[in-house]
Amino acid sequence: STLNKIVAGRYKVTVDRSNPLTYEMAMKPEKIGTHKSFNSFNTGQLEGSFSYKKLQDKGGVLLSHKLFMEDMFIRRFLKGTWSELFLSEIIIKRQHNTVRIAGIINKKLTARKIYFLIGYTEEMLSQWLKCPVKLELQVADDPMQMIYKYI
To answer: Which pTM was predicted?
Structure first.
């Protein structure tokens, strides 16, 4: 079948099965939406929320494109600010006017530095995105806890 020929998003099996995978990496691409959720949630594409024709008449940018670019900016900003601390994928949820960002971080820093980074990140993103931003982080003591299986 066609699904068996897809190689994108799949990891190669090593001979000694020493390649560690997280839960997100272990899921096959065709299982996104059933076994695994999407990494960005927003209601911008719901029918009737924003009129495509009205937006074109005003010369504005499509909301889905704007949200995609904002999500990409958020992920790059977090990867740079929290360098080497994120152990999981960055999940972005938009609810009304609020952006909630979730993830699992490594406990390399002291609590004081983590609280500073949370405040700095929330404040900077709130200023740039012009909406409230809330970080919801969990801390893992050992990065080995994130390994789901070896291939």
So the answer is: 0.73
